[in-house]
């Protein structure tokens, strides 16, 4: 687990690669924007689908909009006989179109120096980290490169500045700036923000490209769901869990009110709204 202190101005964020499970990241992002928006002003990194959520936070795109987009793509993938493996289903084509649609015109300027995207160079399988972007088109190219899984997404890797790259998760699935980086993962493990899986906790696990994954029954389901998306209902539950896990981390580090206080506050607000006016 990353050593994190309670000073938000020193904390950076890192979103792991996880395919369709990036809906979990969206929930975490929503909690951070709601209760600790100052964290968004720091540096944010990501690999594969995690880079999409990282770019979303840096450019201040509406998380609800991104969540709806993910659910729409999940629905489209599940409507095919072979899901995302159907020959006529162009997953990254849809992702590219949606990212281009919701990114603000100055997204590349906001991301330069603050967004860190992990790539794997196709020619020598070396990890490459990109932090500077000359245009929105280049920013999108980098994200798409970081998401490309050979065979699953196609045969020919996409390019960035004339060179072919594939999924950054193969070489560094959890890129970090320093020891103050808060790691986010949809897999139960040693990440700072992740599902606890209390009912099936295990002390055994493994590390995949810097991402800690414990041996739990739910993690087995999540590993499958990365590439073969579950129902939109299950995806919505993952998003909610991401929000709750994110809020629990913020509460533990004194960056958000405790959950009990939030519940009392909500009850009081409801009481005020329901009380008769004189």
From TrEMBL:
GO terms for molecular function: triacylglycerol lipase activity. Keywords: Hydrolase, Lipid degradation, Lipid metabolism. InterPro entries: Acyl_Trfase/lysoPLipase, PLPL, PNPLA_dom. One of its GO terms (biological process) is lipid homeostasis. The active site is at 48 (nucleophile), 167 (proton acceptor). Its EC number is 3.1.1.3. SUPFAM superfamilies: FabD/lysophospholipase-like. A motif (GXSXG) lies at residues 46-50. The keyword DNA-binding does not apply. It comes from the Eukaryota. Coiled coil: none annotated. The keyword Chloroplast does not apply. A motif (DGA/G) lies at residues 167-169. Transmembrane segments: none annotated. Residues 13-180 form the PNPLA domain. GO terms for cellular component: cytoplasm; lipid droplet; membrane. This is triacylglycerol lipase. It comes from Strongylus vulgaris. The lineage of its organism: Eukaryota, Metazoa, Ecdysozoa, Nematoda, Chromadorea.
């Amino acid at each position: 687990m990353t050593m994190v202190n309670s000073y938000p101005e020193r904390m950076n964020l890192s979103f792991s690669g996880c395919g369709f499970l990036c809906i979990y990241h969206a929930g975490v992002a929503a909690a951070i924007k709601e209760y600790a928006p100052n964290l968004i002003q720091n540096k944010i990194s990501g690999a594969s689908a995690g880079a999409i959520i990282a770019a979303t936070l840096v450019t201040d795109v509406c998380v609800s909009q991104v969540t709806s987009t993910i659910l729409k793509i999940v629905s489209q993938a599940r409507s095919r006989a072979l899901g995302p493996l159907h020959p006529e289903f162009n997953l990254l084509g849809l992702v590219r179109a949606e990212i281009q649609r919701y990114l603000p015109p100055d997204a590349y300027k906001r991301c330069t120096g603050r967004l860190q995207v992990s790539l794997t160079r196709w020619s020598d399988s070396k990890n490459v980290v990109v932090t500077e972007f000359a245009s929105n088109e280049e920013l999108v190219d980098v994200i798409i490169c970081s998401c490309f899984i050979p065979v699953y997404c196609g045969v020919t890797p996409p390019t960035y500045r004339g060179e072919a790259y594939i999924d950054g998760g193969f070489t560094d699935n959890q890129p970090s700036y320093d020891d103050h980086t808060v790691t986010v993962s949809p897999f139960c493990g040693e990440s700072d923000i992740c599902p606890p899986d209390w009912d099936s906790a295990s002390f055994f696990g493994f590390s995949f490209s810097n991402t800690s994954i414990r041996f739990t029954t739910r993690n087995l389901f999540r590993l499958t769901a990365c590439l073969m998306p579950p129902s939109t209902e299950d995806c919505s539950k993952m998003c909610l869990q991401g929000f709750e896990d994110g809020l629990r981390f913020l509460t533990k580090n004194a960056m958000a009110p405790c959950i009990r206080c939030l519940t009392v506050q909500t009850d009081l607000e409801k009481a005020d709204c329901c009380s008769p006016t004189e």
